[in-house]
Design brief:
25% of the residues lie in helices and 28% in strands. With 417 residues, the protein is an alpha/beta fold. Strands 3-2-1-7-19 form a 5-stranded parallel β-sheet. The protein is globular, with a radius of gyration of 23 Å. The chain starts with a strand and ends with a helix. It binds flavin-adenine dinucleotide (FAD).
């Protein structure tokens, strides 16, 4: 019996890697070690359905217990790996126990950035990464009246939308000039700015947070802004981004740059160690520079890179080649993003922002490279195929609501190779 495949991190990437390794024929022992006490669960609903009361904590479990038994996968929860010894091919757990491996997969994900200002850790200040975090926000929302959300990215805005929908007074504080500025083009940001404003969220743009102040009970009671204003609140939710959990890799001498550096098969420089998911940086064939390493925080990237890593273990390496995609639900608007855009890309709108149903296409050298759709799921699925097929399209075709997008795919299929 070999020491088998040891996976550190029991979430999307870890589960997918185990699943795909089995599906691809790996028959050795598989052990997944997870720091959290709960069995693997879905994270996207934490800022969506769960906070809205539409989904329960129990309903978020990714796999029934029987699955692990059927697949011969040992799941060790509530166990943190503290040290990796590459020479001995062993890891040490916080309990002191050591586990050997033949293959090691790092799927340790990411954790929320702390707010680096005085008062940033006061009681009543919430982050949102785990189910426990979400349940704490849910409890807070049952009694709080006014909440300040710091950060106007996806997590901050989804949380703002859920809390506002429940009738709380919500203020969003964003340091930059644009909501979701890291990922979405200005038109899409403008749509969501209008949506949140209409729903009664107060947006404070281009202003930093200087400190959080406690009330008489020691809990957060005020957000002090850099422009001198003070916002009263009953609680604060932070949505200021995450950092990769790459410490184990770094301490073991593996190359990291805000994430474990791997190739398109999830391989590190150590032939026995792979990484996937939010902790990994990998070259993406759909990036503006396909050689540049990117860290994509999404379920799709976690799953697809994990599958590529599993193919290495199975002895038939198949590099990652999927079109990146992501979604965000805010009120009744569903934002879906496919591909990777760049500020220099040409932007073409199909539909109108006012109707709340549109797709914004990004073209680079005449090819569709990225699409942001709001509440147009069928069109979005098609757009994903256009990106995958790297089709050429004219801006006037994409903008014309009567032009049949499918024809672009048919034209590619019919073109001589
Ligand atoms: C609130 C929220 C909403 C989101 N919404 C979306 C969405 O709509 N669409 C989308 O595509 N993505 C969404 N995401 C992002 C998505 O959840 C992540 O991309 C995905 O969870 C990454 O999976 P992962 O397995 O790489 O890492 P994670 O899910 O972060 O899991 C890593 C696991 O490893 C464990 N771990 C870390 N270090 C150790 C250690 N030393 N020993 C043992 N265990 C360890 C952690 O405790 C954790 O359980 C959302 C995330 C959050 C938090």
């Amino acid at each position: 019996m070999t020491a088998g495949l040891l996976i550190i991190g029991a979430s999307y990437a870890g589960m997918q890697l185990a699943d795909a390794a089995r599906a691809k024929g790996y028959s050795g022992p598989i052990t997944i070690v997870g720091e959290e006490a709960r069995p693997p669960y879905q994270r996207p609903p934490l800022s969506k359905g769960l906070l809205l009361g539409k989904q329960t904590a129990e309903g978020l479990t990714i796999r029934a217990p029987a699955y692990f038994e059927e697949q011969g996968i040992a799941l060790r929860l509530d166990s943190r790996v503290t040290c990796l010894d590459r020479q001995a091919r062993r890891v040490r757990l916080a309990s002191g126990e050591e586990l050997a491996y033949e293959w090691l997969a790092l799927t340790t994900g990411a954790r929320c950035r702390p707010l680096p200002v005085p008062g940033g850790e006061l009681p009543g200040v919430h982050s949102l990464r785990s189910l426990d975090d979400a349940l704490a926000i849910e409890r807070m929302a049952a009694t709080a009246r006014r909440v300040c959300v710091i950060g106007g990215g996806f997590i901050g805005l989804e949380t703002a939308s859920a809390l506002r929908t429940q009738g709380l007074e919500v203020h969003v504080i964003e340091a930059s000039a644009q909501l979701m500025g890291r990922v979405v083009p200005p038109e899409v940001a403008a749509y969501f700015t209008e949506l949140h404003t209409q729903r009664g969220v107060v947006l404070h743009m281009q202003v930093g947070v200087q400190a959080l102040k406690a009330g008489a009970d020691g809990r957060v009671a005020q957000v002090l802004l850099a422009d001198g204003r003070a916002l009263d609140c009953d609680a604060v939710v932070l949505g200021i981004g995450v950092q990769a959990n790459d410490e184990l890799a770094r301490a073991a001498g593996l190359a990291c740059d805000q994430g474990v550096l791997v190739d398109a098969c999830g391989r590190t420089a150590d032939e026995r160690i792979l990484a996937a998911g939010d902790c990994a940086c990998f070259p993406n064939p759909f990036g503006i520079d396909p050689q540049q390493s990117l860290r994509l925080e999404s379920i799709q990237a976690a799953n697809d890179l994990a599958r590529a890593a599993a193919s290495v273990i199975a002895g038939r390496p198949e590099p990652y080649k999927a079109v990146p995609w992501f979604w965000s639900d805010q009120y009744d608007s569903k934002l879906q993003i496919a591909g990777l855009g760049h500020s220099g890309d040409q932007r073409v709108l199909r539909g109108s922002l006012e109707s709340g149903k549109f797709s914004l296409f990004l073209l680079r050298e005449g090819r569709v490279v990225c699409v942001h759709s709001v509440s147009r799921p069928a069109e979005h699925l098609l757009a994903r195929k256009l990106i995958e097929a790297r089709v050429q399209a004219l801006p006037e075709q994409l903008a014309d609501p009567d032009f049949v997008l499918k024809n672009l795919l048919t034209a590619v299929a019919a073109a001589p190779a």
